[in-house]
């Protein structure tokens, strides 16, 4: 047994590829995997797992342990995680401070629901609201981004007395029955009648939008404008929003404009500079509130600010949080003003698991780690270096149609060289699989599922970026034809 374990560790520590690319060094040694085999999981999946839950890779892997930016599979291989469990592992897998906080709490108190007072909830809420500007001081703690967004709609409707909600095309806000109309990503919309009162406005996309535009990123679309302030195209996209409001929404019935600060599932799509500020002002004229979905952009990920909406020069009326809030521990939040929260008192409300002692302890530790390890600054510095290297790759490989993003919320869109035609799924899948085989787990998304999404744990280093660029280049080189 000892000899087998030794061979296992040697395999993952001294892993080599068919190229000269090597993983950055790590002294962490994972536990020996003793769970079910791939064949066993195949059998269970075929019978017990919903068919809608699909495998990302042609050759699946079983991930059984994580450490900071690293993941380990059932065969002892180590991977650099560039997707963070869908932008959810914020400060690092099994970060020792977060793990310690959970261990301490798990031996003290697990659950009492938020109808009782327990200290961790109050300690966490006080620390969380200190990160918000203005009157955003009231916190609802729930369990997922979908649940947070659903509650945000209830708050917006209760406060305004209106029913209609506007979101942007290709936005993702959850796929529950109540949010199927808010989400405007075709891949996640079931073929059924969506709830009434949802409208999807034209997406102001600098890369694929009809008026282009310049964005808040080091990387701009080739030939884009370079407006010193707000982008001139933002007025044209806002005009389209006003046309939607004037023609498709009942007069004085707008409850909210619901937007991601940067679209996540759609592949880090940013808007022309100034768009959200102008769109927010317009929606206020129609009696609605602004809801910022910070599920993916929050907690310093964009580098320049703690919340994505701050990069846009706006203060929303309602903010939703999830994913990185608990570093993978199930938790989400809705932050709003006292005035809006007061409108929610017309009926009883509670949340069984929201803000439970374990979740609150983990989330409080996450905020402390972000501060103590200066991770927002790391996002800014490493994110700048990362996007600069991606831009250099784009110059060499015309299959990269667009490089975009901010901080450590980045993406590259793969296209047929010389065009904006999305790379076909077979070619994209080959690139995606090769990246995995070379030691990186990366995300995918976009309307045509042709975008590589880069949203790693916020602790990655310059060496990790260099490795990532080497892997991406090798994968593109192998599949350039």
From TrEMBL:
Domain of life, per lineage: Eukaryota
Subcellular localization(s) per the UniProt record: Mitochondrion
Enzyme class: transferase
Swiss-Prot/TrEMBL catalytic activity: (R)-3-amino-2-methylpropanoate + pyruvate = 2-methyl-3-oxopropanoate + L-alanine; 3-oxopropanoate + L-alanine = beta-alanine + pyruvate; N(omega),N(omega)-dimethyl-L-arginine + 2-oxobutanoate = 5-(3,3-dimethylguanidino)-2-oxopentanoate + (2S)-2-aminobutanoate; oxaloacetate + L-alanine = L-aspartate + pyruvate
One Gene Ontology biological process: L-alanine catabolic process, by transamination
Enzyme Commission number(s) of this protein: 2.6.1.18, 2.6.1.40
Keywords per UniProt: Aminotransferase, Mitochondrion, Pyridoxal phosphate, Transferase, Transit peptide
Pfam families for this protein: Aminotran_3 (PF00202)
Listed cofactors: pyridoxal 5'-phosphate
GO molecular function, one term: beta-alanine:pyruvate transaminase activity
Keyword Glycoprotein attached: no
Gene Ontology CC annotations of this record: mitochondrion
Task performed by this protein: Multifunctional aminotransferase with a broad substrate specificity. Catalyzes the conversion of glyoxylate to glycine using alanine as the amino donor. Catalyzes metabolism of not L- but the D-isomer of D-beta-aminoisobutyric acid to generate 2-methyl-3-oxopropanoate and alanine. Catalyzes the transfer of the amino group from beta-alanine to pyruvate to yield L-alanine and 3-oxopropanoate. Can metabolize NG-monomethyl-L-arginine (NMMA), asymmetric NG,NG-dimethyl-L-arginine (ADMA) and symmetric NG,N'G-dimethyl-L-arginine (SDMA).
Family: Belongs to the class-III pyridoxal-phosphate-dependent aminotransferase family.
Name this protein carries in UniProt: Alanine--glyoxylate aminotransferase 2, mitochondrial
Biological source species: Parnassius apollo (Apollo butterfly)
């Amino acid at each position: 047994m000892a000899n087998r374990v030794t061979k296992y560790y040697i395999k993952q520590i001294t892993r080599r590829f068919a190229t000269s690319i090597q993983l950055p060094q790590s002294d962490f040694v994972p536990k020996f995997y003793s769970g079910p085999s791939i064949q066993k999981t195949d059998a269970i999946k075929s019978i017990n797992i919903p068919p809608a839950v699909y495998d990302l890779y042609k050759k699946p892997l079983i991930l059984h342990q994580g450490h900071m930016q690293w993941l380990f599979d059932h065969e002892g291989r180590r991977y650099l995680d560039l997707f963070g469990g869908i932008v959810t592992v914020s400060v690092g897998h099994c970060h020792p401070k977060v793990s310690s906080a959970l261990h301490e709490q798990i031996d003290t108190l697990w659950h009492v629901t938020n109808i009782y007072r327990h200290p961790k909830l109050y300690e966490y809420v006080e620390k969380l609201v200190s990160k918000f500007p203005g009157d955003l001081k009231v916190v609802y703690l729930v369990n997922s981004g979908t649940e947070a967004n659903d509650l945000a709609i209830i708050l917006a409707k209760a406060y305004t007395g209106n029913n209609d909600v506007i979101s942007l095309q290709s936005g993702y806000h959850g796929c529950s029955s109540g949010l199927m109309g808010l989400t405007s990503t075709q891949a996640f919309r079931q073929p059924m009648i969506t709830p009434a009162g949802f409208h999807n406005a034209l997406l102001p996309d600098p890369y694929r939008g009809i008026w282009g535009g310049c964005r808040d990123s080091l990387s701009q679309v080739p030939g884009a404008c370079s407006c010193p302030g707000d982008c001139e195209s933002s007025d044209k996209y806002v005009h389209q929003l006003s046309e939607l409001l004037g023609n498709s929404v009942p007069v004085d019935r707008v409850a909210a404009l619901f937007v991601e600060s940067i679209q996540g599932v759609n592949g880090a799509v940013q808007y022309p500079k100034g768009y959200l500020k102008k769109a927010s002002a317009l929606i206020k004229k129609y009696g609605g509130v602004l809801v910022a979905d910070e599920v993916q952009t929050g907690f310093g990920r964009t580098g320049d600010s703690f919340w994505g909406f701050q990069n846009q020069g706006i203060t929303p009326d309602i903010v939703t949080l999830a994913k990185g809030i608990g570093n993978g521990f199930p938790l989400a939040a809705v932050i709003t003003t006292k005035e809006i929260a007061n409108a929610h008192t017309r009926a009883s409300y509670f949340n069984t698991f929201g803000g439970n002692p374990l979740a609150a302890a983990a989330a409080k530790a996450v905020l402390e780690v972000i501060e103590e390890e200066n991770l927002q600054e790391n996002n800014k510095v490493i994110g700048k270096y990362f996007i600069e290297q991606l831009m250099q790759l784009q110059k060499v490989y015309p299959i990269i149609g667009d490089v975009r993003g901010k901080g450590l919320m980045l993406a590259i869109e793969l296209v047929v060289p010389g065009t904006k035609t999305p790379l076909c799924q077979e070619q994209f899948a080959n690139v995606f699989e090769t990246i995995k085989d070379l030691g990186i787990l990366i995300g995918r998304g976009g309307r045509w599922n042709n975008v590589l999404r880069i949203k790693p744990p916020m602790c990655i280093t310059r060496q990790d970026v260099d490795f990532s660029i080497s892997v991406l280049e090798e994968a593109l080189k192998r599949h350039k034809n």
